[in-house]
User: What shape does this take?
Amino acid sequence: MRHVYLAATGQNRGKTTLSLGVMDGFQRRGLSTGFIKPVGQRTVIEEGVPADEDAVLMKTVYELAEPLRQMSPVHIPRGFTQSYIDGKVVEDLPSRIVAAHSQFAADRDMLLIEGTGHAGVGAVIGLSNAQVAAMLGSPAVIVSEGGVGRPIDEIVLNKALFERAGVQVAGAIVNKVDLLAKPDLARTLERGLARHGITLLGVLPYRPILSNPTLSMVLEGVHGETIHPGPDLDQVIGGVAIGAMEPQHMLQRIGPGALVIVPGDREDVIAAIVHARRIGAEAGGDALGLVLTGGYRPRKPVLEAIRAADLFATIVPEDTYAVASEVHDLLVKTHAADRGKIEEIKALVWEYLFIDRILEVATEAEVRPSPATA
Assistant: This one.
């Protein structure tokens, strides 16, 4: 069994997106592929057991046979780090990871290992990405995102930490690159990384659908009361605007397809957005929907105007800041129900990522004993 460790230079770099696409690429090459996330930080309860949400996502999308306990052997709930530092955690966590990893060998041609955050994340409990990759004997592929200087700097920094742990860095992927505005950026990144002995394994272009949720996802995520569904709940929002200023100023900040989060008692702002949409105004006329916060219900004429403008709207009890945070989480996560988004990810990764190069750098698994059992 060959394996590769997919790491990142920080949060929200698109590592889960890459995992979905790379898994698809391996399967298109006819390889029976398993998935493991050794250390998870976002835990959900699925099938009656705690597991990292990315492991649940991969199991659901690809109908993977392995139990979640094997795919997500260690997860870090709130308060775990403090307990570990205080000496209250006595379980041999490295052994649990090694045992889960070794169970894949008999059944799979390839194993995709997904890390958590940058190379140093998890060091506080002795399970940094660099330490885990070294423990499993897996080469690392580092994921960063758009730009020139920042991704190269981040990748070089993470490479140093992996190599210090004895991990081979097999290459890097740069995600969310505006190739339309900068068509030569891929070549620049390739040359810049080559100066540090790092192979560029692919550059993925920015696509709004890969970053932004649909209106139906927003509705599900904020658990609001639907005032009006609008013309199409499957529309992808173009961005988020906060309605916390005078209407004439607010309208200038609403971009195409924006979801506006606004207190339900700011009827002046709501009315301005509705009017702009109805007349197709240049400023504010492209708003896609409203999230009315604070549990405040606008007066009946305002609600009727929202419906007449065919504008998506939902009312939620939380304040504007809390709702904005919830929507932000939706902006950076992929859910199994996002079928259109997942198909776009598969197609994009297949087109732009050098899957065969990743297969070349993947190595045969050589399970190493944990420090506690060596």
